[in-house]
Amino acid sequence: MVSVLAAQRVRAIKTEGGRKNLENQYAIEMLNITKEFPGIKANDNITLQLRRGEIHALLGENGAGKSTLMKILSGVYQPTEGEIIVGGKSYKRLTPKDSAENGISVIYQELSVINELSIQENLFVGKLPMKKYGPVKVVDYKYMNERAKELLSKVGLKRDPKTLVEDISISEKQQVEIAKALAADSKVIIMDEPTASLTSEEVNHLFKIVRQLKEEGKGIVFISHKLGEIIEIGDRVSVLKDGAYVGTRDVKGVTADDLVTMMVGRKIQNTYQHEDAPDTYENTEVIFEVRNLSRKDQKVKNVSFKLHKGEILGFSGLVGSGRSEMMNAIFGSEPRSAGDIFIHGKQVKINSPYSAIKNGLAMVTENRRETGFFYNFDIKQNISILPFIKTSKGKGTIGLTNDKFEKECAEEQKKNLNIKCASVDQNITELSGGNQQKVILGKWLAADSQIIIFDEPTKGIDIGSKSEIYTLMRKLADEGKGVLVVSSELPELLSVCDTIAVFREGKIVQTFPHKDATEEKIIMASTADLKERTN
């Protein structure tokens, strides 16, 4: 079935003037794109048109088909059916070379910069400028340095081009990625969850760059799950659902509720506390306690807190305030200089992730792709590995695997967590971000973990999957498991947590029961010292 947009285009190109008008108007057209994998149709007859000088937001739940569609555009995947029109040329499929030659660049959520190279080397990797010395060709470092300075100035990055990328921040790495796209003279730039790891100040700077690229006539595909950002930065927004095209709207005049309805077709629950939650948990059983925890690097200083049965305890604070650093110390992935940990009143010794696992602790890490799962494992292997490690000897090195157990274990978690996949034999990298997060949680539940740490649990996850994760957190707390949540999203903490502790400069400075917590109070507690210093 041909889409309405595609049918309109067919009528328009019957005339020479109509064809040229379309070529001038659109940077990219993807017409009736279908992509099938074994057992699943990832894209089903999708049409997407990107105008020149437009910021076109692409929205949809995890698994809606956004990433597959962009991988087709970048040449990573080939469509089963459909047509791609770039620069007036029609393609049944693009190779990565075709995509690059047509000025299409992708800035992935997991940035592709090479930490061991300098900024300027990253900008020109694979296409180093060369000059001749007689019969010999050598890298033209002088030109590369001068051109790099121009590009960095354009994106507002005040760094020496010779600086190693491993020595710069996440937001600066993103600026390097944008400069890299400009170095390739890209006409279309795809940004996949570009603000996922940025502070509000860094987001504002990114938006300034994006608007500048728009003014230069670049076409921007902006993939985000943050509805407020889409409404702020986008010109048009296209929504996908279950691999199919739902519709395209002008951002002007659209509301967040409109977009949610298009995405999920249902109203999303806004709060996840107990209906009969107590005002305070002080009189309920303490299931987890940390006393006087510190780190040598002073990122955590003499922190103490208690987690009660049925309670979800959240941790707020600015990036670098010590929240994640404390969780890493609790889990044994970073050393602590002092402090004691108690589970159900019994002191436990945790000096490594292995000892944490043995003692029933779990940690859903902030960076799921680097520290959450094994790339080369399928779903069942990723889920079943924790039970094997927990019951094995020699710190997980001695023990036998069991194919039947792997399958049964994975099928149980697939059902419990509603993991959307073709089968548990599927590689985890083929899943959406939300379903990868469920697999990660599944491995901890399969290991019967009693205390679960969630560090930025919904980073890069759509609103529908967020709702499912929040519901799972509440279910775990109601079952008597301990739930600790670190998040930079205040609405998330206010929605799901019973108590919120605020970090500032390595310490817990204030704790709010849910009934007293507001965004204003939390921000004030997070930044009080900063405000005093700037006054």
Shape: globular
Lateral strand order in the biggest sheet: 6-9-10-3-11-12
Fraction of helical residues: 25-40%
Beta percentage is 15-25%
Q: Which whole number gives the mean pLDDT?
A: 84
The assembly state of the depicted protein chains is single chain
- Please tally the helical runs, counting DSSP H or I stretches of 4 or more residues: 19
Question: Biggest sheet, open or closed, and with what strands and sense?
Answer: 6 strands, mixed
Q: Nearest-angstrom radius of gyration?
A: 25 Å
Query: Structural class from helices and strands?
Result: alpha/beta
Q: Please mark out the parts with pLDDT under 50 across 5 or more consecutive residues, or reply none.
A: 530-535
Distance between the termini: 64 Å
Q: What is the tally of beta strands?
A: 22
